[in-house]
Amino acid sequence: MLQGHGDDTYLYPGIKSNFSSNIYPHADLTALKAHLRERMDLIDHYPEPEPLSLERMIARKHGISVDNVLVTNGATDAIYLIALTAAKNRFKHFSVGPLPTFSEYEDACLSAGLTPQDGDGEKKTDHTVLWLCNPNNPTGKVYPKEELGHFARPYDMVVIDQSYEDYTLAPMMSHQEAAASKNIVQLHSLTKTHAIPGLRIGYIIASRPIINLLRENNRPWAVNALAAEAGKWLLENNVSVIQDLHAYLAETQRLRTLLNQIEGITAAETQTNFMLVEMASKTAADLKNYLVRKHHILIRDASNFRGLSPHHFRVSTQTPDENDLLVNAIRDFMIQR
User: Fold this and answer.
1) 1-15, 36-50, 85-99, 261-275: lowest mean pLDDT where?
2) Which of these, 281, 282, 284, lies nearest to 314 by C-alpha position?
3) Which of 78, 87, 259, 271 would be 267's cystine partner, CB 3.0–4.6 Å?
4) Taking a C-beta distance cutoff of 8 angstroms, is the pair 251, 258 a contact?
5) What is the DSSP letter of 292?
6) Is the dihedral of CA 230, 28, 250, 101 positive or negative?
């Protein structure tokens, strides 16, 4: 399990601007909260052992069969379920997409007893699960569908994590394409789409045989009643928390441009609302401590992503005023001896 993740505000009281989480920071959840207050009676009873009513709604919305849908307790729960199911069904190895990427894929596979496919230096695709994050965390890169197909073609199972699909304008693989595929397992996150990280809710799209195998290994009552109710309400009301994605991503590019104007800072290209940043000499840990202490700003120290260094951090776009405060604070940090 990843330690040192984003949105660790519980460790830093008094944070005023949280750049550490990739989830949209200014969602208006007033109506959802009001609805859940009216449904608190749900906690008096067990939820559905399997959240079939929510699965049926997801299937109807995307024009696929309910047999292609499995709702989970967040996307991370789905990752561990997939790794466990693969290990129980002839898979022996795993491979993750180009580094750096989300570390839970590797952690889940190792905990299930799978071994890295490149362990002896020779690439294997048989009995191997390939994991791809698209858009990728922490880089913000989006892989074109043709490139995904190139990665995926040799493998018996390919997991494509599209948790950040609603934070980009780039084309994504559709639910229907994933459901029609024999080897693709697609991950989605209502948590991220609707900016409700405290309510763990995600879902898997795959062929019926794969969904059946996953369901055999899923825990009963894995999704609590309030999370399921929130998911149904959000789908029923077609809620979109980002009112103007074009403007939000334009602000992301403005933030990237400002960061790149600071000597010793390189902010990488991104197609989402977050970006990976590298400092020429100073460390992300020192910068994080400085920003928390002096400015009550929180960033994501990205040094614990495999393939990155102590000089890497990740930020996600906030309001223009907050972004300007971050840039000025980082500039002040960089000129300190």
Assistant:
1) 1-15
2) 284
3) 259
4) no
5) I
6) negative
Residue 119: the pLDDT is: 44
* DSSP designation for 269: P
Measured distance between the N- and C-terminal CA atoms of the chain, rounded to whole angstroms: 36
Residue-level pLDDT at 272: 98
C-beta of residue 293 within 8 angstroms of C-beta of residue 85: no
Pair 158, 177: CB distance under 8 Å? no
Q: How many residues does the chain have?
A: 337
Q: What's the pTM value of the predicted model, to 2 decimals?
A: 0.93
Q: Cα–chain-centroid distance for residue 170?
A: 16
The strand order across the sheet containing 274-279 reads 265-267, 274-279, 312-316, 300-301
Query: What's the mean pLDDT in 256-261?
Result: 98
What amino acid occupies position 232?
K
**Cβ neighbours of residue 30 closer than 8 Å, sequence gap 6 or more:** none
Residue 122 has pLDDT above 80, yes or no: no
Residue (of 138, 119, 109, 127) closest to 19 by Cα position: 138
Is the pLDDT at 235 greater than 60, yes or no?
Answer: yes
* pLDDT at site 152: 81
DSSP 92-160: -EEEE-SSS--THHHHHHHHHT-EETTTTSS---TTEEEEEESS-TTT-----HHHHHHHHTT-SEEEE
**Strand 69-72 to strand 17-18: parallel, antiparallel, or no bridges (unpaired)?**
unpaired
Q: Which of 189, 237, 204 is nearest to 86 (CA)?
A: 204
Question: What is the C-alpha R_g of the chain?
Answer: 20
The strands making up 115-116's β-sheet, listed across from edge to edge, are 69-72, 202-205, 184-189, 157-161, 128-133, 93-96, 115-116
The SS3 assignment for 39 reads coil
C-alpha 252/C-alpha 244 separation (Å) is 13
